Each structure stands twice: as structure tokens, then as C-alpha cells.
Amino acid sequence: MPSAPISTPELFATALFAIAVLHTFSTKFFAHLAHVQPRHAGLWHLLAEVEVVFGFWAFVLVAMLFWWSGKPAAVEYLESRNFTEPMFVFVIMVIAASRPILHTVMAAVQALAAMIPVRRAVAVYFLCLSLVPLLGSFITEPAAMTLAALMLRDGFFRQGLSTRLKYATLGLLFVNISIGGTLTNFAAPPVLMVAAKWQWDTLFMLSHFGWKAAFAVVVNALVLTWFFRHELAGKGAAPMAGEALRIPSGVAAIHVLFLVGVVAFAHHPVVFMGVFLLFLGYAEAYKQYQERLILREGLLVAFFLAGLVVLGGLQQWWLQQALTGVEPTVLYFLATALTAVTDNAALTYLASLVEGVTPEFKYAIVAGAVTGGGLTVIANAPNPAGLAILKGSFEDESVSPLGLLLAALPPTCVAIFAFLAL
Q1: CA-to-CA distance for 278 and 219, rounded, in angstroms?
Q2: Where exactly are the structural domains of the chain?
Q3: pTM metric for this prediction
Q4: Rounded-to-integer distance, Cα 385 and Cα 392, Å
């Protein structure tokens, strides 16, 4: 059956998508321009914000759709997009980053770190990159990313770590979060896109993906921690667990209930937004136990993801063709590579539209999608959240996409071994 002709909006959207991808690799350049050309520093700073990139180019696409197709068609396209994920990531970021939640998790990490016979800072670092990413299988990947990034920022990145270690940590964090959410069928965005249609339950995920992912997560964290153990022991200054004692247990428990409520209704924005508004009211009522809520950072990340949803909605014409009729092992590596320049959830969603696929096809596409989820900022939905929290510790408050890619390659290779050889 011949394929449908490619429309002009689809071609234009693909061109804008390519420009947006190139833009994400150029943010450090724009950040540098802001310093050397102060007259237009505001514009360069705006273009240097990774979280702004896809939202900006999505706005250009929508403006062109209004011009080409008219208001009804443009509005119809926007209303056909599903913005649940950007809204959810915003909400979960803000709640997970609240002081009671952060200190509760840090107290647990500190207690476990005390049982490991190494320097406390080294043990905390290892747990931030192993235990917390695996925890993402239960509290969702965006929440795990937020918690891990905040603990790494406050305990390590602000203590004068070398640039080499900062990039290595960021790359490993992105990879481990991406694969660490595969122990269940509801926490990782690329798994969510196919779990219901392909009837994958948590037992299936644990037996086919989860144990392999856990192996890769622990090995990655162990190797990096051992390699930089001397620098971590000398510069790490993780917050003391005793800080959590200043927050009443009842307040902490209520925050945990808010977090659980949002996770439980992750697919129902009407419900979780209502829970979030109630959370904001509670946080204001007991603001003596709060620090600044990361509303700005959360909104920027949501804007980024919403732009990805708008631009990605018109990429089906080439992505689906690229995924069909490919041998499973080749498909695995193809999915890993495509994830780096798209979004792993969008990739698996398009794969779910292909009918009559084999179990080998399903495994290859999902395993490849989560494997490549740490290679770039746009590869996995939680990545912009982690970047928003940690980028202030880098020079010019900007992360080099090439530096991130190179840092993520070694842990990605470990994930490849786990998913293909185990």
C-alpha cells in the first residue's frame, strides 16, 4: 500500500525540528555571546536556555500553521496533542524538590551510607547515582531525577568538583535514570507509551528489563565512584541527615502523601493538578518548613517538553518508516541513536502504532529507547529537569552537549551490554 504524500506542514515541522536539535547543541555558544556582547545579553541568555529551545521553535511552527492552514486547523492540531506529561513533570518536580521530601530521602540515603565501609561522602555519591535512579521505578523518573540532582548539587557540585567529574556525573545520572525506571510498567515515559497496548505488567518488566537495568545502574555507579573516589572524599560535603529532624514527621508524611497522590493519578491531569494546588496551599500554610519551591525551573522544563510534543507530533512520517522492516539487533541500535535526537517516549509511541510486530521488535525498540535516554538533553523527559537544577554549577551556567554526549557514552555501553548480552 503506497504511503500517504508528505504535506508541507510536515516538511516544515521536520525542518524546524532539525533546527531545534542543532540549537540545543549550540546553547553554550549563545551563553558565551551573552558575555562578549552585553548589549544584547538578554536575547543571547534566552537563546542559551536549553529549556526554551523546543518551546521557541514550536511557537514558530504554530504561527506558520495559523498562516498556512488557518485558525481552526491550527487550534485543532494543538488540541490533538497530549500535554499530560509536561504538566506531570512540572508538578512532580516541584513536590519532589520540596524541603520535607528532599530531607526525608537524604536521611534515608545517609542512614544507608553509614552502613557502607567507605568515606561517608563517597557512599552518599554512590547511592545518589544507584539507589535513587532505581527508586525512579516507583516514584517515577522525573521525581527521582529531581531528588538525585538536588542532592548532587548541594552535596558535591557546589563543593568545587572538577569539570571532568561534573560532566561524568551528569552523563551517568541521565543514563541511570533512563534505564533505572524499567523495573515497573508505570514509571518510565517510554514504557508507559506501550505497556497498556502490549500488555506488559510489572512482573514482565522486572523479568525482561528490570534486573538487567539494575545490573547496569549499579556497575555504572560503582565504576565512576571508584574512579573518582579520592576527589569525592576530599570535596564531597553531603548534607547531614540530622537536618531532616527539624521538620516534624507529620509534615514530612503529608508531603509524601502529596507525592504518592500525584504519582497514582499521573495519567489524569484534572486530578493531579488539583492535588498540586492543594499542595501549594499546604506549603504556604507551613512555609516555615519550606525553602523556595522550584516553580520557575519546573515551568521551563514543562515548556521544553510541551514544545517537544508540538514539534514531535508531525515527525511520524519519517520516524515510523525508519522503524519498520528492520532486524531486531539493528533496530535496537537504531532506536538508541534516534532517541538521542528525538525523545524516547515519542519513539516508543510511534512504534506502538505499528501493527503485527514481533516480541523481538517490542523488546528491541523499548530497550534501545531507554539505553539512549542519557545521550542528550532531549532524549528523555526527566533530563531537562536534571539540567535545570545542575547547570548553574557549570561554566557560563551552560552544559556542552558534546561534553554530555561523551560523558554518557561509557555508561551507555554498559547498558548496551546488559540489554543485549545478559
Answers
A1: 40
A2: 8-80, 84-421
A3: 0.84
A4: 13
